[in-house]
Specification:
Layout: H1 2-16, E1 24-29, E2 37-42, E3 48-55, H2 60-71, H3 84-91, H4 95-107, E4 113-114, E5 121-127, H5 128-134, E6 140-144, E7 150-153, E8 156-160, E9 167-171, E10 183-184, H6 210-217, E11 231-235, H7 243-253, E12 263-267, H8 281-291, E13 299-304, H9 316-324, E14 332-335, E15 337-340, H10 346-361, E16 365-369, E17 389-390, E18 398-405, E19 412-414, E20 421-427, H11 433-443, E21 455-458, E22 461-464, E23 468-472, E24 475-479, H12 482-502, H13 512-516, E25 522-523, E26 552-553, H14 555-561
Helix pairs in contact: 1-4, 2-10, 8-12, 9-10
Main location: secreted
EC number: 3.4.14.10
Domain Peptidase S53: 207-564
């Protein structure tokens, strides 16, 4: 009781003091406005801002330790995934932190709503004038010259000294929105030609179907049997998965799965229109190549609407908090969207990465397409230094690059668009330190100074990503991109999980320690590169490389490595 009174008293004094007199500390700042944005004037004082406040989590280091303990082969706790309640203990703010932030909010006249299961994220609405005052900020209107997109942001903000160690950061403040919004990572989504291509029994360099993928990776076509096994497919930016198109796709390429469909979950006002003309290329691709390759595994399309609680993250954090709130989240989650790491602040990136750690500790494998810009980011762009993508730089998820066929026999080479490189925010995790060191030694001074040699490296693995046949609005078309690769690799993991669950064993969960411990379970891709930034980028090489990772899956070997 005494500590509560002291906190309340100190914060009451701070709240009543003038901004210049308060004891404040800069929490975050940035030196330069992101490229393309210009300040176009002060924000109107009465404009309402929807700010999110992240509280300091109680034991994030303990969470990471627990994640590795249940995810590392050979660990005494391997496979003993944590419950919802066990995970929340690591991230729920201490009573002292919650009381300190609550007392301060009361004194500045703000009311907050918890927007995460553990209560470590709060949402508040505040006019610009008050936000400037209580955070010693200068919220202004910034406009993107090319797109005209506007955002109200500040170049720095401060918090009271008394909240140091309790309030982690405030968002959106110094993070700027991506001018083009959250992007699916498809290389050829526009002007697709209608093609009438029959199902292929073997692979072709001009058409990839589920049968081709099963052939080159040894994936069985026998149906999974475990109904408790689940594969989640993320959907964003009003990309809708069309059931009629899936039916047509299966009738062409997986007649044995005729009648198979998918479940739907929604959040943030999400929906899944079945109007044929609103069928999304990305959504259809992801659904068709999970249902069509992960034979019989229950697939759920998780549609995230535009009523975001996480601001500029575009629903990336919202979908994880949504799944963390479930008693039984899916064992695999695949996402084919992304952005560039530099578009968000380090604090925000770290918080989202820790959310992946929470879901991974629960037993979910989180996979993302690495991006389609080679070394120039999520999509090809002008640059002088290599651009890492996000969230591929986070060490607690699995980044999937892309390959393409060089012959009908199934030989593969790196896809030139396959994003890969090194994070500027996260260091090299122990599970990949050896292979990354070997690769860096092999390239010597090539591209020296253009990337962070001490950063977490990506992608981790790869899968076919060129000329995949899909059905959109009743038409058969082809697409390229790491968007193709992530659902394919996720399907492999889901089928292995089916076998594990059938034997009463735990699903694989966070994959990376297991994957890097079994490099021989991959088809090593040693040719190709991922150019960008006026360079040839990185070269594929023997062993791990920042184009195709460890390589593409050999189903039988991966399944054996998993112990089934």
């Amino acid at each position: 009781m005494v500590s509560k009174l002291l906190i309340f008293s100190a914060l009451f004094s701070l709240a009543l003091a003038k901004p210049t007199a308060r004891s404040m500390k800069v929490r975050e700042s940035r030196q330069n406005v992101p490229a393309g944005f210009v300040r176009t004037g002060a924000a109107a004082p009465d404009t309402e801002l929807k700010l999110r406040i992240a509280l300091v989590q109680s034991d994030p280091e303990g969470l990471v330790d627990a994640l590795y303990a249940v995810s590392t082969p050979g660990s005494a706790s391997y496979g003993e995934h944590l419950s919802k309640e066990e995970v929340e203990k690591f991230v729920t703010p201490t009573a002292q932190s919650s009381e300190a932030v609550d007392a301060w909010l009361q004194q500045v006249g703000l009311s907050a709503t918890a927007i995460s299961p553990a209560g470590d994220w709060l949402s508040v609405s505040v006019p610009v004038s008050k936000a400037n005052e209580i955070f010693d900020a200068d919220f202004a209107v910034y406009t993107h010259s090319e797109t005209g997109k506007q955002a109200i942001r500040t170049m720095s903000y401060s918090i009271p000294d008394a909240l140091e160690g309790h309030l982690d950061f405030v968002h959106p403040t110094i993070s700027f929105p991506s001018p083009k919004g959250l992007r699916p990572v498809i290389s050829t989504p526009d002007n697709l030609q209608n093609r009438a291509i029959e199902p292929l029994a073997t692979c072709s360099t001009t058409a990839v179907t589920p049968a081709c993928i099963q052939s080159i990776y040894g994936i069985p076509s026998t149906k999974a049997t475990q109904k408790t096994n689940g594969l989640g497919v993320s959907g964003f930016i009003d990309q809708f998965a069309n059931s009629a198109d899936l039916k047509t796709f299966l009738s062409k390429f997986r007649t044995d799965l005729a009648g198979t469909t998918f479940a739907l979950q929604t959040l943030d006002g999400g929906s899944n229109s079945q109007t044929p003309s609103q069928a999304g290329i990305e959504a259809n691709l992801d659904i068709q190549y999970t249902v069509g390759v992960a034979s019989g595994v229950p697939v759920t399309f998780i549609s995230v609407g535009n009523n975001f609680q996480d601001g500029d993250l575009g629903g990336f954090l919202d979908i994880i908090n949504f799944l963390l709130g479930e008693s039984n989240p899916p064992q695999v989650l695949t996402t084919s969207y992304g952005d560039n790491e530099s578009d968000i602040s380090r604090s925000l990136a770290n918080n989202l990465c820790n959310a992946y750690a929470q879901l991974g500790a629960r037993g979910t494998s989180i996979l993302f397409a690495s991006g389609d810009g080679g070394v120039s980011g999520g999509q090809s762009q002008s640059c002088t230094k290599f651009v890492p993508t996000f969230p591929s730089g986070c060490p607690f998820m699995t980044s999937v690059g892309a390959t393409q066929l060089t012959s009908s026999s199934g030989a593969e080479t790196a896809a030139t668009f396959s994003s890969g490189g090194f994070s500027n925010y996260f260091g090299i995790p122990s599970y990949q330190s050896s292979v990354v060191s070997s690769y860096l030694s092999s390239i010597g001074s090539t591209n020296s100074g253009k990337f962070n040699t001490s950063g977490r490296a990506f992608p981790d693995v790869a899968a076919i990503g060129v000329d995949l046949e899909i059905v959109v609005d009743g038409r058969t078309e082809t697409v390229d991109g790491t968007s193709c690769s992530s659902p394919v690799f996720s399907s492999v993991i889901s089928l292995i999980n089916d076998a594990l669950i059938a034997e009463g064993k735990s699903p694989l969960g966070f994959l990376n320690p297991f994957l890097y411990a079994n490099p021989s379970a991959f088809n090593d891709i040693t040719t190709g590169d991922n150019p960008g930034c006026n360079t040839n980028g990185f070269k594929a090489a023997k062993g791990w490389d920042p184009v195709t990772g460890l390589g593409t899956p050999n189903f039988a070997k991966l399944k054996a490595a998993a112990g089934v």
